[in-house]
Amino acid sequence: MISESTESTTETPNNTNPPFEVSIIGGGIIGLNLALGLLRRNIPVAIYEKASELKGIGAGIGFSATVQECMSYLDPRISAILSKIGFVENQPLRWVDASKKDEDFSMRGPDELFDMKLPLERSYVLCHRAVLVDELVKLLPEGCLRLGKRLEGIEQRTDTGKVVMSFMDGTKVESDAVVLGCDGIKSHVRYLLAGEGNPSGIPHYAKESAYRCIIKMSEVVPILGNYASVMAVWVGRGASLVTYPVSNKVCNFAAFVRDNDRDWPDYSEQTVQASKAEIIGAFVDFNPMIRRLLEVLPDQQSRWGLFDTLDYPLQSYVDGCVAVAGDAAHGSTPHHGMGAGIGIEDAVVLVTILEKANQRLSSDAAATPESKRMAISRAFETYDAIRRERSQWHVASSRRQGQLNKWELPEIRNADDFVRDTMERASRVYTYNWRLEVQRSIQDYEQKMANTEE
Ligand SMILES: Cc1cc2nc3c(=O)[nH]c(=O)nc-3n(C[C@H](O)[C@H](O)[C@H](O)COP(=O)(O)OP(=O)(O)OC[C@H]3O[C@@H](n4cnc5c(N)ncnc54)[C@H](O)[C@@H]3O)c2cc1C
């Protein structure tokens, strides 16, 4: 639970107009998208980010056509950026069974490259994370992003209807009511929301590591041949691999390795140092083409711990005027390539209902701190009601996909089983009616407000 108090300890900034501002904790992909969506709807935003500089990591990221539409709804400039920097992949999802040790993949014709294909229309845009973050930051108005601000505590004041945030540098900020935790898988806002000792407050190791980097196309093409210019998921025993171009010059590489026999060494860190030899060791049973690809990796590697929220999901994403979104709410393993996409869907619902709350309060000259608090907390209740089920289902589905990609499920024995098992979940993941969800959010919020006012 977020603590509550009635005793004022901080200065209130003098901003009586408009009705509320939003404080976002965390300037990752979700915090940035959400901020831009709110600003477009004339809702003032400040982003508090613990890092002293905001730069994306050196790896790729992809977004489905539906997620691109969601970005456009948030702010059309976001999808315009993707069109500018991204690489479009207009293919259904496809996998190669790389456990076929003796096969020479270079002998396969262009139509035979993949062993498993989903009969599902799909357009995906792939890009470099660091470039995307850079471009999104450029769209923020001056003063919106506050760096070096690591959130430590939140207190909801019942007398003023405001929220006091305290930061590690000793400063406190009183926010006009709304705090959104977009602080990632190791979210401190989620920890505060769940309450001390609650296992839902912390992410749990999904017993899997990822090794990710960017490799020059000039090194990849001679090895992967026809596979170099498309997205390929390589599946095998105990490990899997994703390769895709993020531009004409570089290819994204992400290897996933099951860690049944080892725990994560340091829970305060998301990455630990690793070596190329460690990756090669995990792929010894893979096809020679993949083993040749591993040889071109840099010697120094980072091992990313994959944490998720499957075993201890949050019972609610909100508490009064505080909410969590993105990985902070429903961190998942990355096997649908949709973790950020699901967070962007959260942002769509949040901007929709916060805009409604803003309109209501702007037209209410007699709004009190209590009525303001009520309008915002009802908006957050709608967000929780609309988003929790789908986003937590995605966490479970992604875990299952990770097991499939490593041939770990005894009931899945061949390509047909694989496609059958994946198809239904994949269509739910990638073809999602976000416009309907926007309508449902508005209806649910109006209903909640009508019930409150009765
Ligand atoms: C290998 C891999 C591949 C992936 N591929 C895809 C893909 O193709 N498509 C896709 O949609 N998703 C993908 N994902 C998932 C995606 O990366 C995440 O879902 C997404 O980055 C989450 O964004 P976020 O903004 O919620 O969190 P983050 O990106 O983790 O951002 C959180 C921010 O909060 C800040 N922060 C943390 N604590 C505090 C604090 N106390 N105070 C202030 N600031 C704080 C952090 O510094 C950080 O900047 C992948 C994930 C992995 C691991």
Task: Write a short abstract of this structure.
The chain has 13 helices and 21 strands. It has 454 residues and is α/β, with parallel strands linked by helices.
H/I helix tally: 13
Strand content: 15-25%
Helix content: 25-40%
Which term fits the overall shape?
elongated
The termini sit apart by 28 Å
Largest sheet: 8 strands, mixed
Radius of gyration: 23 Å
CATH topology: FAD/NAD(P)-binding domain
Q: How does CATH name the architecture?
A: 3-Layer(bba) Sandwich
By secondary-structure content and strand pairing, the structural class works out as: alpha/beta
**What compounds sit in this structure?**
flavin-adenine dinucleotide
Describe this structure in words.
The chain is an alpha/beta fold and 454 residues long. The protein contains 13 helices and 21 strands. It has helices spanning 29-40, 65-74, 76-85, 129-138, 188-194, 217-224, 276-282, 288-295, 327-330, 339-362, 369-404, 415-430, 434-453, and strands spanning 3-5, 21-25, 45-49, 60-64, 87-89, 94-97, 116-117, 124-128, 145-147, 151-157, 163-167, 172-175, 177-181, 204-216, 232-236, 239-245, 250-258, 271-275, 300-308, 318-319, 322-324. A hairpin with a 4-residue loop joins strand 11 (163-167) and strand 12 (172-175). The longest helix has 36 residues, at 369-404. The radius of gyration is 23 Å and the shape is elongated. Residues 6-15 have low confidence and may be disordered. The chain binds flavin-adenine dinucleotide. This is Zeaxanthin epoxidase. It comes from Talaromyces pinophilus. Residues 146-379 form the FAD-binding domain.
